[in-house]
Design goal:
Elements: H1 3-11, H2 27-36, E1 44-47, H3 54-60, E2 66-70, H4 73-82, E3 91-94, E4 109-115, H5 124-137, E5 138-149, E6 157-158, E7 161-162, H6 168-175, E8 179-190, E9 196-206
Parallel strand pairs: 1-2, 1-4, 2-3, 4-5
Antiparallel strand pairs: 5-9, 6-7, 8-9
S-adenosylmethionine binds next to helix 1.
């Protein structure tokens, strides 16, 4: 399976507002980011950002040091065009979380945000690569937001791909003892077709 091609096709020629995972406003993410109380120049990485409006909202809020990354160069190009009127441009990084080549080399970040990305990593070795990356590019004192399909109620597929679902305990175990769970809550997302998708939202803080 060529995941880069799969995700490019998911975005090419599509209307962003009709994507199955589209949120008009990424409110639960924005609420958790507010709780972090980080500086406006904090380094924020939006993992598997796609064409999410979270980046627009963060820039509107004055955050000036944002990195967006995705396996789909088509999604990044749509996002780049949409954000082109902002003075402080985000950094765009085209990379694959299951085989990161560029992300490993970036300066550590103050906030890692992932909504609906990690759950596509269905193999243990992919998850291991993902969590090693989290540990290698987050600062001590940084925050990690993971919002994924929930173990019991979450959908089994998205975008024609199988997913691996989570509880906050599972996410905490993958992150390990260096990370402390600050907050978690279930969240029901209504997609543009008005179908429900059960997520678990988690906020962790890196202690050591
Ligand atoms: C369901 S979409 C969610 C997009 C965005 N986070 C949001 O909330 O709207 C999943 C995103 O993860 C990206 N993705 C999937 N597998 C990836 C991988 N191995 N590395 C990087 N990005 C990946 C896809 O291209 C897509 O943009």
């Amino acid at each position: 399976m060529d995941y880069k091609e799969h995700w490019n096709q998911a975005y090419e020629g599509k209307v962003t507002e009709q994507l199955g995972w589209y949120e008009d406003i990424s409110q639960p993410s924005l609420d958790l980011i507010k709780e972090c109380n980080i500086e406006k120049h904090a380094r924020i990485i939006n993992i598997g950002a796609g064409t999410s409006t979270l980046t627009d909202s963060l820039m509107d809020d004055g955050f000036s040091n944002i990195i967006v990354t995705d396996i789909s160069n088509s999604a990044l190009e749509i996002l780049r065009k949409r954000l082109s009127h902002y003075k402080n441009q985000p950094q765009f990084i085209h990379d694959d979380l299951t085989n990161p080549t560029k992300l490993q080399k970036i300066e550590p970040v103050d906030l890692w945000h992932d909504r609906a990305v990690l759950h596509f990593l269905t193999k243990e070795e992919e998850r291991s690569t993902y969590f090693n990356l989290v540990k290698s590019i987050t600062k001590i004192g940084s925050y990690v937001i993971l919002a994924e399909f929930e173990l019991e109620k979450g959908a089994e597929k998205c975008c024609n791909l199988n997913v691996y679902r989570y509880t906050s305990k599972m996410l905490g175990e993958y992150l390990g003892d260096d990370f402390e769970l600050i907050k978690d809550f279930p969240y029901t997302f209504f997609n543009p077709r008005k179908d429900t998708r059960a997520y678990i939202y988690t906020l962790f803080k890196r202690k050591s």
